[in-house]
Amino acid sequence: MNTTFPHLLLQHAQQRPGDDAMREKEHGIWQSTSWSALLREVEHMAHGFHQAGLQRADHVVVVGANRPRLYAAMLAVQSLGAIPIPLYQDAVATEYVFPINNAEVRFAVVENQEQVDKMMDIQADCPSLTHVYYDDPRGLRNYKQAGLFSLASLLSEGEQMARVEPAFLTSRIDLCQADDVAAMFFTSGTTGNPKGVVHTHRSLLDRAKAGADFDRLTNREEVLAYMPLAWIGQNIFSYAQWLCCGYVVNCPESAETVTIDLKEIGPTYYFAPPRVFEGLLTNVMIRMEDASPLKRAMFKYFMGVAQAFGPKRMDGQAIGLWAQLRYALGDLLVYGPLRNNLGFSCVRVGYTAGEAIGPDLFSFYRSIGINLKQLYGSTETAVFVCLQPDHEARADTVGVPCAGVEIKVADNGEILVKSAGLLKGYYKNPEATAEVLTADGWYHTSDAGFLDAHGHLKIIDRVKDVGRIQGGVNDGAMFAPKYVENKLKFFQFIKEAVAYGDGRDKVCVMVNIDFDAVGNWAERRNLPYAGYTDLAQKTEVYQLVLECVEKVNADLSADKLLAGSQISRFLVLHKELDADDGELTRTNKVRRGFIADKYAALVSALYEGKSQQFIETAVKFEDGRSGSVSATLTLMDAKTFAPVGQAA
User: Fold this and answer.
1) 3-state secondary structure 108-158
2) Which segments within 195-268 are labelled E, that is strand?
3) 464 with 503: CB under 8 angstroms?
4) For 184, what's the count of Cα atoms within 13 Å in the CB-facing half-sphere?
5) Selection from 364, 227, 273 nearest residue 589 by Cα
6) What secondary structure letter does DSSP report for 296?
7) Could you tell me which residues are beta bridge partners of residue 376?
8) What is the structure's pLDDT at 558?
9) What domains lie within the chain, and their CATH numbers?
10) Could you tell me if 548 and 489 are in contact, meaning their C-beta atoms sit under 8 angstroms apart?
11) 509: which strand partners?
12) What whole-number distance in Å separates Cα of residue 504 and Cα of residue 469?
């Protein structure tokens, strides 16, 4: 089968030319683009790129939010046999230098003035970059730099050529083969320069179809595309599966309007990393804190009903007539309005991935009737390795291997994967490729886990992060930092957590409060504060966080495997962890090692038993300026519990 992304575009445009392919919200109004209109734009753009000198196997960076014209640009690039490289639009300019130079990029397609400015800033460091095309012209009228062009002008030139050579596009698409490189995605680069993950049309579309078949997706799905296209999760859901299934992809007006746009579109197929679900739940809890006593009492009662019976109901289990009646009443008064308020009323299938989701957070959404499931995969596996079947979604597993996937567990507990969706290799990095791909086609995931008795995969943590407590009462106990961090992040007051304990005699944690949630909590108690740093160090806030920590410890004490991972000491950081400061990746994953080095004084103070520690930290502001934030932090002990079944 010689199927490629451009071939699928041709099929949709021929079979249902007038159907919506994409929608974009502009000035508060949804604008539709049909499959035939999209094909026409791709045709004109491909002609324009060809005239500008784009060759087969050339790389083209694409930077911006989800926009129909950027999707068209990727399709046009692929139609010519060239390779799009989506990059994160919120990255600072210097983060683009390595990918552009590594891939010898000559062409860039960007969304707006912000991205143009970044490209202009790095042109001296990227001598190969000669053509920059922008979509949104606002603010760019007086830009006269050489090599800067609008996509509108490219389309105009391409339209003229299309009249002369109407068969050009189809002739070029016919040259595309399934095993040609379709796209390249750069990894987060948590331990050095990012690596370019090379995928073919075959690898991406094989996994897209496997996921679509698993959940019976059709061309009637509605998807809201609001996460960065550079994240392969969003790319698979709103690009690969979009072309595979032919459903409608909706692009929100801006990041600020996503929650409104979500309600207006009512997606049937939804995908987001855990932090999005955490943020939505935090907003719910904040609103409930401001509700009347009657509404708070009703919410508390029916959420108890939901937690008791909702997950069983979602899994198709019988719950009894009285429970059904109470749940139905809760659905009328609480769950239904809540789903509607979140924009999830029409969701048939919802997925979370990217990192582990806290079990309490996962259960919350399923308890109110949202079919939220987990999947397991990575950039290198084209996402789909394991999926949770309907009625078999469990908080502690990531599902069963989907079609075409083989899994085995190495002696050290590492998960190895074989499938048609594996990367072709890391670009210009045969050493790194050899480290993850064996000669017989197995991919080393670097994740530790096992297949349970029901065939579901359970991930414990990253192999390199799973450790052991050494010394103290829990000597030899397993320590899984991500598991501990996720349990803390279920609480709406905690935005991020970084846990340490491997090779040490106890577990200590650094916490980021959620400024909005804690700020709302403080205001209702007439607790004044002057900003994040001041609020984070309030005695009352520490008591609030302490309650969360000790609830987590009580939960951990019931887990035989991880009871030794209870938190002995903690502190609340004086600043939010930030990707611009190197503390998070662009996908908001904690860079635990970097943070340990940066805040070595705080880690030492936690383990030395200090009650206070001064810290001064360099930060980068949004406008590019540098500065510093300093504070004297409080360090606090937390109560730990004897493992369940063991005498205190």
Assistant:
1) EEECCHHHHHHHHHHHHHCCCCCEEEECCCCCCCCCCCCCEEEHHHHHHHH
2) 196-200, 222-224, 248-251
3) no
4) 28
5) 273
6) H
7) 386
8) 86
9) 5-268 (3.40.50.12780), 274-462 (3.40.50.12780), 467-637 (3.30.300.30)
10) no
11) 499, 570
12) 5
Q: What is the pLDDT of residue 190?
A: 56
Instruction: Tell me which residue of 473, 420, 465 sits closest to 446, measured CA to CA.
Output: 465
Tokens of 450: 């096992």
Helix spans in 382-437 (H)? 430-436
What interhelical angle do 515-524 and 539-557 show, nearest 10?
120
Contact 638, 552 (CB under 8 A): no
Intervals of the chain under pLDDT 50 = 647-648
DSSP state of 459: E
pLDDT of residue 189: 62
Taking the C-alpha atoms of residue 480 and residue 413, their distance in angstroms, rounded to an integer, is 13
AA identity, residue 557 = S
Residue 312 pairs in a beta bridge with none
Residue 494 and residue 269: Cα distance in Å, rounded?
Answer: 28
* The token pair that represents 142 in the structure block: 């007086």
- Cα–Cα distance, 270 to 222 (Å, whole number): 8
Q: How many whole angstroms separate alpha carbon 154 and alpha carbon 48? A: 5
Tokens of 220: 């009637």
Q: What does the block give as tokens for 311? A: 């997950």
Closest CA to 362 of 278, 456, 455, 457: 278
In the three-class reduction of DSSP (H, G, I as helix; E, B as strand; rest coil), residue 107 is classed as strand
pLDDT tens figures, 190-230: 557 899 999 999 999 999 999 999 999 999 999 999 999 99
By the 10 Å C-beta count (0-12 exposed, 13-18 middle, 19+ buried), 140 is classed as middle
E strands, 338-435, where? 349-352, 372-376, 386-387, 400-401, 406-409, 414-418, 425-426
CA-angle at 615, arms to 612 and 619, nearest 5°: 150
Pairwise CA distance, residues 424 & 285, whole Å = 45
Phi-psi region of 338 (alpha: psi -120 to 50; beta: other; left: phi over 0): alpha
SS3 assignment, position 492: coil
Q: What is the pTM of this model?
A: 0.82
Helix (H, G, I), strand (E, B) or coil at 30: strand
Please state, in angstroms and rounded to a whole number, the distance separating the CA atoms of residues 123 and 392: 51
Q: How far apart are CA 242 and CA 238, in angstroms?
A: 5
Q: In the numeric block, which tokens belong to residue 571?
A: 């502190």
The count of other CB atoms within 10 Å of the CB of residue 101 is 15
How far apart, in whole angstroms, are the C-alpha atoms of residue 593 and residue 500?
A: 10
Instruction: Determine phi and psi for 490, rounding to 5 degrees.
Output: -65, -35
Residue with tokens 């296209």: 229
Helices (H) and strands (E) in the chain, counts: 23, 28
